[in-house]
Amino acid sequence: MQSFPINFLALVVATVVKGALGWLWFSPMLFLKPWMQLAGATPDSMKAGMAKALTIETIGNFVMAFVLVHAVHYAGANTAALGAAVGFFNWVGFVLTLGLTSYAYEGRPLKRVAIESGHQLVGLVAMGAIVAVWT
User: Fold this and answer.
1) How far apart are CA 28 and CA 26, in angstroms?
2) Which among 64, 66, 85, 98 has a CA at the least distance from the CA of 129?
3) What distances in angstroms separate CA 107 from CA 111, 119, 126, one per listed residue?
4) Fewer beta carbons under 10 A from the terminal one: N or C of the chain?
5) Where are the domains of the chain?
6) 79 Rama class: left (phi>0) / alpha (psi -120 to 50) / beta
7) Do residues 135 and 72 touch, judged by C-beta distance below 8 A?
8) Cα separation of 39 and 16, whole Å?
């Protein structure tokens, strides 16, 4: 694998931005209520697992940013728009396909797949733009 310098500040910023987008996406203003109904979640069950979930999500977001910076680098994306495009195509190739597989095999409601994969779309596009400009 080709070695190249990585701006870890960009990875931290991308991680924080994706977490903030998730907070907004799953807020009462946007998709919290329909997602909770579709996922069978309750306020109590969410509160009980919040620390663990936030920890895992933050680590996952950092790993996602780390992998995405490599995709951005290998694609030669050096502008926000090109980085966003790399994020978009990674979303189509990995996140959307997994969501649709859950819909097909598990019978997961399509609306839930749309909410969850939509969150990842917004996050990957933003992260791609950030890491492309900062690395």
Assistant:
1) 7
2) 85
3) 11, 20, 30
4) N
5) 8-134
6) beta
7) yes
8) 25
Which structure tokens are listed for 75? 């694609």
Per-residue DSSP letters for 45-79?
HHHHHHHHHHHHHHHHHHHHHHHHHHHHHHHT--S
Question: For tokens 């399509």, what's the residue?
Answer: 110
For the stretch 72-94, pLDDT in tens is 999 999 999 999 999 999 999 99
Q: Which of 13, 90, 64 is nearest to 82 (CA)?
A: 90
What pLDDT shows up at residue 34?
A: 98
Please tell me the distance from the alpha carbon of residue 107 to that of residue 70, in angstroms, as a whole number. 34
Which is nearest to 134 in space by CA: 46, 32, 10, 4? 10
How far apart (Å, rounded) are the C-alpha atoms in residues 28 and 118? 16
Structure tokens at 66: 């780390």
**Who contacts 85 (Cβ-Cβ below 8 Å, separation ≥6)?**
77, 128
What SS3 class is residue 99?
helix
